[in-house]
Amino acid sequence: KQAYDKSEYLADSVISSIRLRCPNLLAFTLQNCVIDTEKVKLALFPKTLKHLTLASVDLKNKSQEKLAVNASPFFGIKKALPNLLTLQLENPWYLRSWDSQAIISGCKLKPSMTITGSSHQYTFGGESAVLSRTERRDTSRHFIDLMDNHTTKKK
């Protein structure tokens, strides 16, 4: 859908209100809405979140011209949401390789990714190995490792 009614957009004030009124929120799901990534940043979400799901969400003003990891709205998600254990993206038609790299960039623990149908789940923590500062900077390598798990046939 190219044109959305203003009522379909998630207002940044809604996220700010949730953050203020729900200071201990652990799980949050957004479904069937539009997010203007210039107005609603992941840093606005409650820092207590452990599980975030974006289900059939449309991201608008997502930089399509800048193909850099740091242009993605997901860049620095672990810094913005330090307690985040899982990020579930359902029907993420907008997702590009640099978005996946942005999601895993800066992680102190090696993340994992599971792709099931049109759902992508990123898991941070658990039994993951601790990454050195140099390894954290090498998001391209981690992305390739994550994708290899899903494209290589296991015998």
What is the structure about, briefly put?
By secondary structure, this protein is an alpha/beta fold. The chain is 26% helix and 20% strand. The protein starts with 11 loop residues before the first helix and ends with a helix.
Structure explained in plain terms:
This protein is of the alpha/beta class and 155 residues long. It is built from five helices and seven strands; from the N terminus they run H-E-E-E-E-H-E-H-E-E-H-H. The chain has helices at 12-21, 77-80, 97-104, 133-137, 139-151, and strands spanning 27-31, 34-36, 51-55, 58-60, 86-90, 112-116, 119-123. It has a five-stranded mixed beta sheet. Helix 3 (97-104) crosses helix 5. The chain is globular, with a radius of gyration of 16 Å. The termini are far apart. The mean pLDDT is 81.
Total beta-strand segments = 7
Major sheet characteristics: 5 strands, mixed
Structural category: alpha/beta
Cα gyration radius (Å): 16 Å
Structural features:
single chain, 155 residues, alpha/beta, 5-stranded mixed sheet, two-stranded parallel sheet, globular
SSE arrangement:
Layout: H1 12-21, E1 27-31, E2 34-36, E3 51-55, E4 58-60, H2 77-80, E5 86-90, H3 97-104, E6 112-116, E7 119-123, H4 133-137, H5 139-151
Parallel strand pairs: 1-3, 2-4, 3-5
Antiparallel strand pairs: 5-7, 6-7
Helix pairs in contact: 3-5
